[in-house]
Amino acid sequence: MYRAANASSSVLWLIGGIGLATLGLVVLSGLWAGAESDAAALERQRSLINQRLHEQVDQVAEAIDQVSSGYMALLSSQVSRVPSPVSSGDVLASEVAGPESAETISKIVVAVFGYDQAFVVDGNGQLAMRSGPEVEARYRWIRPLLLPLLRERQPGANPARRMSSNNVLANSSESSSRRGSFAELMRLEGRPTIAGIAPINRAEDLSSREPPLTPQDMRYLIAIRFLDGAALDDLSREQGLNGARFARSADPDPNEVAVQIDAGATGEPIGFIVWSPDLPGSRVIGRLLPALLGAALVIAVLFLLLLKRLRTSLIELKLSEANARHLASHDVLTALPNRAYFSAQLEECLAKKPVSDQRSAIALIDLDRFKAVNDRFGHAAGDELIRTAAERMRSIIGPADVLARIGGDEFALLICTSGREENTLGDKCKALVAELSRPFHLRSGEVVAHIGGSAGMTLLPPSGGSASEILRQADVALYEAKNQGRGRSVLFQPDMEEGRDAREALKGELRKLLENSPDSGLGQNGQSASTFGFDENFGKLDLYYQTIHRASDGYKPSGAEALIRWHHPRHGFLAPDEFIPLAEEGGLLELLGRWVLREACSAAASWSPDTFVAVNVSPSQLRVPGFEDVVETVLLETGLPPSRLELEVTESALIEDSRDIAGALRRLRARGVQVSLDDFGTGYSSLSHLMHFGIDRIKIDRSFVALLGARADGAALVSGLLSLARTLSISTTAEGVETEAQRDFLVALGCTDLQGFLFSKPMPLGELQARSEFSQLRSGELGRAQS
Fold first, then answer.
1. Which residues on neighbouring strands pair with residue 105, listed in sequence order?
2. Angle between the 370-377 and 379-394 helix axes, to the nearest 10 degrees?
3. Which pLDDT tens digit goes with each residue over 708-761?
4. Which residues are within 8 A (CB) of 604 and not within 5 positions of it... i.e. 6 or more apart?
5. How many helices (H) and strands (E) does the chain have?
6. Per DSSP, what are the bridge partners of residue 360?
């Protein structure tokens, strides 16, 4: 069990770990997807920045090319209007574009095209424009940085060198390439700058003029645009760069990124553009993170609750399994071990006997008169009695002893004693019997039951033995204890088996007698009713009748009660108390009662029409479904009117299964059958029985009648019973009337019928029919009745 529990716990922890790992993996996957989205967005922004910078470089190159082209067109038109004997093709731009014109074009470049600075210089890098001291000072500061680029663009410079100085030039338009205009990323005045240079010369001057132009004859337009000013703002606005700024070193804040800007000619770092990037992944995660965390928390809580519930279910399942094992080996009502557990312990004890120095014994304990309490006071009281008896016995036995409930009111005790101390076994059983003899207060003291108990003991043989044989010996001893008067314990002796065998033999003989029944299903069918209950080897069952007399009209017989007897060839005349319990143990009581009913009705059919026959009915008969149909069938077969049949029931029959029995009695009374309550006053004596079950007659028990004249309170008791019956308009029959004084007293109190030895003893049918009141036989039935 503990291994299963540990395995189940391990599985739960494994499931929990897998669930939490899966949940964490989902969260990490979301974070990873957001990070990848941010990285892709950042890389895209960096690529767009570089692309935009290259585009701006191209735009600067194209713009100054257009400006220089327009300016050259303007110079050409001016040269064509100059009156000179010299050809216009021989006129240099330097001759036409004076300092004033150069200053004008530089201002146009700054004012119109939005460049930060513009200069017109010659091939040596000297200013070729009119300018103030401030402009000259600024140009002198940047001239050393521009001069190398300017020289690379001089006529006769290495074209490969000029083309490889910046790959931006390769991306310029063809017109720009033809004229030699270019733009370059560089750092001027410590700032990132796009510097564009365009020649202010006609194309033929640059390629075919002889002699070649000197640097003093060349004119170049230099336009400068700083990237950390308005250009950076435009770039930031176009590309969505939040808070873009220029930095000389890569020192972004934690929420910023930087892109390095390299010089186009040298590849040296110019600086960094720093901005707060637009990271969609982080934005989405930032918005969804609270919801994700909330969902993750809810899922985690639900998962933990599920794990807790699973764990609880496993614990409940283990407890249920343990409880099922316990129930499989224990009695539900008393929590004592059951028959299976006791048998296993007995087998284990027998297996250890050869190597054990203990002498063990078993005892079977039966509660005396338990059925009477259960019938009279109901199943709830019976269950309470069983529990209380078990608690009493448990308080007496030792910790090594095993007390088990093996039947309804039967218990078994396995006692282990050291050595051969047989007195310990006897003392314990005597203590148990004494404890069971004390009164039981049931229903919170409302009912006091006196039952007692009987015990049958047997010692286990020193060398082991058969468990079934040992239990049989204990059962024989228990039977002997009951035969000796109950309320005692008896140790098994070999000669006791003779009585047990005789009892079993008598039960078998009774079964053989009942096999002749036409509807028994036990043996041959088709036998007549006259041959039923007769066997030359086992004797004959017969009905005797005791007359019942009216208290008025000279004590004329009003009917007779049918009483069964067994004429046994060896045991002689057996009263019902000697074989009715055997029939009940063997399940033969219903069949026997059906035969008694049939024989009594058949005999009464020949009596005077104003007489009736009373037949005792057991509780087991009343519990049989369709019992009223059996009664009706018997009445039809025998021809006896239902009003002449009186069924006597005991109060115990009314208490047990009262709902079903009440229905059966109501249906019988509806068909005209009379119902009487036998031995009234000795049982529960509840008025509700008289009202609820619709009793037609009550029979006052002989024990109350015997009190008349013997005790002063006897008359009061009988008077009260008769007064109650008279008030309820119920007929009464007093049993056990033996003296004239009793008869006269009962008549004076209003008893309607009398029965007892004063009038007659139980007699066979032939003797009864010799009386005039019972001699009116129908034609052809005299012989059958006497047989």
1. none
2. 140
3. 877 767 788 888 888 888 888 889 999 999 999 999 999 998 999 999 999 999
4. 560, 611, 612, 613, 638, 640, 644, 645
5. 28, 25
6. 416
Residues 6+ apart with CB under 8 A from 235: 49, 52, 53, 56, 227, 241, 244, 273
Strand 697-700 to 731-734 pairing: parallel
Q: What is the mean pLDDT of residues 339-361?
A: 77
Which two three-digit tokens encode residue 152?
């690379």
Residue found by looking up tokens 């219903």 in the block = 590
pLDDT of 3 > 60? The answer is no
Going by C-alpha positions, the residue among 264, 126, 99 that lies closest to residue 195 is 264
List C-alpha distances in Å: 751 to 550, 698, 754.
9, 10, 8
What residue has token string 């006129």? 91
The more confident residue out of 679 and 297 is 297
pLDDT tier, 103 (very low <50, low <70, confident <90, very high otherwise) = confident
DSSP code, position 681: T
What is the C-alpha to C-alpha distance for residues 696 and 188, in angstroms, rounded to an integer?
134
Residue 456: DSSP 8-state: E
Positive or negative torsion for Cα 345, 350, 351, 355: positive
Backbone torsions φ then ψ of 339, nearest 5 degrees = -60, -40
State the CB neighbour count (10 A cutoff) for residue 739.
Answer: 15
Band (681; pLDDT cuts 50, 70, 90): low
3-state SS string over 144-212? HHHHHHHHHCCCCCCHHHHHHCCHHHHCCCHHHHHHCCEEEEEEECCEEEEEEEEECCCHHHHHCCCCC
CB 645 within 8 A of CB 674: yes
- How far apart (Å, rounded) are the C-alpha atoms in residues 561 and 735? 11
Region 95-121: mean pLDDT is: 79
Instruction: Tell me the average pLDDT across 647-651.
Output: 83
∠ Cα 29 33 34 (to 5°): 120
Quick one: three-class SS letters along 539-598?
A: EEEEEEEEEEEECCHHHCEEEEEEEEEEEECCCEEECHHHHHHHHHHCCCHHHHHHHHHH
Q: Is the dihedral of CA 493, 494, 498, 501 positive or negative?
A: positive
Distance CA 82, CA 91 (A): 10
